[in-house]
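Q: I'm writing up a methods section and want to include an example of the input and output format. Could you take the sequence below and give the corresponding predicted structure tokens, formatted cleanly so I can copy it straight into the document?
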Amino acid sequence: MKVSINLLVITLVLCNAFDVNAQPITEEKLTLEDCIRIAMEKHQSLAVSDANIAMAEGQYQQAMSAYWPQLAAQLNASRADQDRTYSLQGQFSLPPTVGGAVASLAANPQAAQQIQMGLAQPIPLNMDVKLLDRDVMTSSLNLTYPLFTGMKREALVAQAEKGIQIAQEGRRKTNLEIVRDVKKYYYAAQFALQMERLASDTLERFKALEDLTERLFQHGSLKVKKTDYLRTKTTTAITRTLLSEAKYARELAHEALGNAMGQEWNASYSLAEPDAATPINQELQQLVESAQTFNPDIQQLKLAVQISDDQITEARSGYYPMIGFQAEVHDIQTPYHSGLTNTANRDGWTIGVGMQWNLFDGFLTTGKVNQAKAQRRKLESQQILLDQGMALQVKQQFLSIKSANTQIKDSKEAVTYASENRQLHVRAYQEELVETKDVIESQIVETFAQGTHYRSRYALEMGLLSLEYLIGQNVQTH
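A: Here is the clean output for your methods example:
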């Protein structure tokens, strides 16, 4: 009975430790394409680039408004402290013909002469005439349309159009940066994982060597001494430390990749094995030309140079007159129906064409033109420097990729030789034909060769993604 109870307790413990009904937890395995897709969906810098494009499109709409007539309605109601009047003060004289006509009506010549003399004198005038009532309400509808702006309107629209293109190139640059960062951390995570596995495999081999050395030492081998046993123990301990560092590097690279993808800090996923990087087939001249054609920084600077041309046109518009069309419909509401607000003036319309031409502005326009020309020269010089710098960077990555290709071939061959050398030393050590230090050295050489091979592959991947970012497209598919 006691045995049955113990068996039942053990069964319950095992069932709790290993839940037979629990479903196995499957961790999402992400490829490089999956990581890039997730980053494109979650990265916040894309929202910033989209906002920049929307702002540029809004500026384009503002520039295009100059091609439309401006229609404005105005309503104004006012009350003054008193009526608005016009004072007539001074004197006036009647024409001589008026005086003669009045004098002809007199009864005798003497009276006619006196009347004519009196009318010839200046007549004083002092009176106030009401023009507007104190309460006035006016409403109007105004239309203005520029007919000629000296090419300023066209220059502003052209600048706004190129501003949209610059924002779009900025969006493309953001995409390239996201892809570059994801690839960089993805390959770094894969490299760290390979180095962790290499450290783990090396540790297992050193443990096996340690056990073999201990057995040979315990059985009284003439070639294996205690110093050899201690040497293997030391090497194993050091390798265990290197494995801990490799695990930390792998976890850190894994977290960096998650951050580049926009994942939550506690997201759980693993990485699929990537395809081997393929070398490029293009020549250096072709790669440099591709960078000058597709690199977003170069394209943005080219557009900036074109904008400077439009800015020169805008500045030169100050030399030309501004001609515009204007029309107005108005209505006046007031209780006073005389003066300026009589029946004829209470409502009506006006239409006309106006011109403004600055004949002399103190050389303001000349200064603006000179500034715009200097800005264009500056941008053109910057474009030359950027082209030269981009060519140098492309050449650097091109040489780095060629060097990495060569290292991959040589290191792969070295791994084959080092592995064969290590196996031969282990078999010889079992027969006590070689010394312990020679076996340890063969183990270290194989690990170093394998690590060099992984490092060469990682260098090739870094060179390819850097070159892809500089050119602005995938160099392995073009």
